[in-house]
Write a structure and sequence with these properties.
The chain has one helix and three strands. It is mainly beta. The protein has a three-stranded antiparallel sheet with strand order 1-2-3, with no helix packed on it. A hairpin with a 5-residue loop joins strand 2 and strand 3.
Length: 56
C-alpha cells in the first residue's frame, strides 16, 4: 500500500539511492540514473552526476 503523501505526489527522494536503467533499441544503447522514493520505491526523476575539474 502506498503512503498517503506519495499518493498526493509528495515523494521523499532517497539521497544515496538510485537505480540505473539500461535500454536498447536496435544497435543504440543508453542508460539513465533515476532517483527513487524512500517511502514507496517509485522512480522519481533523472539524476546526473558531474565531476568538477578539481576532483579529477
Amino acid at each position: 500500500m502506498k503512503n498517503l503523501l506519495c499518493r498526493l505526489g509528495f515523494h521523499k527522494p532517497d539521497e544515496r539511492g538510485f537505480v540505473v536503467v539500461k535500454k536498447q533499441k536496435g544497435k543504440h544503447k543508453w542508460q539513465r540514473n533515476y532517483r527513487i522514493c524512500k517511502r514507496c520505491g517509485k522512480l522519481i526523476g533523472i539524476v546526473s552526476f558531474r565531476k568538477d575539474k578539481d576532483e579529477i
